[in-house]
């Protein structure tokens, strides 16, 4: 078509200006590439340009790299007669239109394609072959989405080389490859990173009633949403206790709670608004697992299971009975007599479980989103009396952790701790029966 956008809407023929520009192009010897015929199945008439350049591509060619296909239609404008595009990436309310037909072969409806400005079925299109989809080349890897804490870099490809048409098959395989990057720890926790994103929308009004703006303080909806839903910028209103999506998606690399607990050593993180699992090697869907020693792809031979027991303590005092060394894994502690005793946990000289003389409630430190977190669970009887305390820490332990016991009065108690002993680190294990405090 001519550069001025001239268009003959009657018979879709070349305008005089377009003819002149094409002849000039050929006369300057710049068209040698057209002599290199592509190796395509079927006849050239079967391979329509719209199979390679979809509506989004045509919008970018016409209006720039941020343009995309209009998300709504005008019934007065036939789908294939006008190119309608969103120009502003942040504005979905308006479209700019160019009076040029969509390329032949552009999909315009279910099992329908454009041909000379009309939306037609395969029979009318006159295709004699089935066109199976084929992948484009991979894009470059994107910049890392975070500067610390484990961001994501990814690259994509599209099933548009050509697009499947006339009953052809979709491309086989994934359209994305992704890896974790910048995995060094941040000063803030993974929960803090999600909280920061939620709080950034505090000044964005929520319209619960027509023409009535309401403002809330937004915090992470951990415990209320999980999986893909959690990655869709789901936040909780502080004090009001309802959740709502505050945007399209969290930043890639934001940690999430997958619908099923990820295997030991793997990481669940948001990617393009979905909760995805990365193997212990940091690669999306690699399936690579860490062994019981915390070694990625290991065979469990670098550590051994050890166990120990504790008997002692003073009434109404906290007594340390276990100090977990760095790199400890698979720690499991059970207190089966929590009526007159209870557990306490200190991380770097600060109590995170109990410590005030009373039994703690269920908690996860620092949060379910954080790597190497510690879970404390209090199990109750049908009468809501304490039945058992349990500490779970998959590890590897990254900080000095001390486990203590408080005896409120003399009483038998059983505790077990499971951990591993490696060549360069020691992991302690279960405590046995206590005869008294």
TrEMBL record:
InterPro entries named among the record's database cross-references: ADAMTS/ADAMTS-like, ADAMTS_ADAMTS-like, ADAMTS_CR_2, ADAMTS_CR_3, ADAMTS_spacer1, TSP1_rpt, TSP1_rpt_sf
All residue ranges annotated as the ADAMTS/ADAMTS-like cysteine-rich domain in the record: 189-303
GO terms, biological process: extracellular matrix organization; proteolysis
Binding positions (Ca(2+) 1): 33, 36
Domain ADAMTS cysteine-rich: 49-120
Main location, first listed in the record: secreted
Subcellular localization: Secreted
GO terms, molecular function: metal ion binding; metalloendopeptidase activity
This protein's UniProt keywords: Calcium, Disulfide bond, Glycoprotein, Hydrolase, Metal-binding, Secreted, Zinc
Domain ADAMTS/ADAMTS-like Spacer: 306-405
GO CC terms, sorted: extracellular matrix; extracellular region
Superkingdom assignment: Eukaryota
Positions of Ca(2+) 2 binding: 36
Disulfide bonds: 59-85, 70-95, 80-114, 108-119, 144-181, 148-186, 159-171
Full protein name: Uncharacterized protein
Species this chain originates from: Sphaeramia orbicularis (orbiculate cardinalfish)
């Amino acid at each position: 078509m001519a550069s001025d956008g001239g268009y003959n809407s009657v018979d879709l023929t070349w305008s005089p200006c377009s003819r002149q520009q094409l002849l000039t192009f050929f006369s300057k010897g710049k068209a040698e590439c057209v002599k290199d015929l592509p190796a395509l199945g079927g006849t050239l008439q079967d391979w329509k340009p719209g199979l390679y350049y979809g509506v989004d591509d045509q919008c970018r060619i016409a209006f720039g790299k941020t343009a995309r296909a209009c998300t709504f239609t005008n019934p007065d404008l036939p789908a294939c007669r006008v190119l309608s595009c969103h120009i502003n990436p942040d504005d979905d309310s308006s479209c700019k239109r160019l009076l040029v037909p969509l390329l032949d072969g552009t999909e315009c409806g279910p099992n329908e394609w454009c041909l000379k400005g009309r939306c037609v079925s395969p029979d009318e299109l006159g295709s004699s072959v089935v066109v199976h989809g084929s992948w484009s080349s991979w894009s470059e890897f994107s910049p890392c989405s975070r500067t610390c804490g484990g961001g994501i870099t990814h690259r994509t490809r599209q099933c548009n080389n050509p697009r499947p048409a006339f009953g052809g098959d979709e491309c086989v395989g994934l359209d994305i490859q992704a890896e974790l990057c910048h995995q060094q720890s941040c000063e803030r926790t993974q929960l803090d990173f999600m909280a920061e994103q939620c709080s950034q929308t505090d000044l964005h009004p929520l319209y619960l009633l027509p023409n009535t703006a309401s403002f809330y303080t937004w915090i992470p909806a951990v415990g209320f949403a999980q999986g893909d839903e959690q990655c869709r910028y789901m936040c909780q209103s502080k004090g009001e206790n309802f959740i709502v999506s505050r945007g399209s998606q969290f930043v890639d690399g934001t940690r999430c709670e997958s619908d099923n607990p990820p295997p030991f050593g793997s990481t669940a993180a948001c990617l393009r608004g979905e909760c995805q699992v990365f193997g212990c090697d940091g690669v999306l869907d690699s399936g690579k697992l860490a062994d019981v020693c915390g070694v990625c792809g290991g065979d469990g031979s670098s550590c051994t299971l050890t166990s120990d027991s504790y008997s002692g303590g003073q009434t109404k005092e906290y007594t340390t009975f276990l100090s977990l060394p760095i790199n400890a894994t698979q720690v499991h502690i059970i207190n089966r007599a929590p009526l007159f005793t209870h557990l306490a946990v200190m991380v770097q000289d600060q109590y995170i479980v109990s410590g005030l003389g009373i039994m703690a409630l269920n908690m996860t430190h620092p949060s379910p989103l954080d790597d190497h977190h510690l879970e404390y669970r209090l199990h109750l009887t049908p009468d809501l009396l304490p039945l058992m305390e349990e500490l779970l820490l998959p590890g590897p332990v990254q900080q000095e952790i001390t486990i203590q016991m408080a005896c409120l009065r003399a009483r038998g108690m059983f505790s077990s701790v499971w951990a591993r002993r490696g060549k360069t680190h020691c992991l302690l294990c279960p405590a046995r029966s206590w005869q008294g405090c």
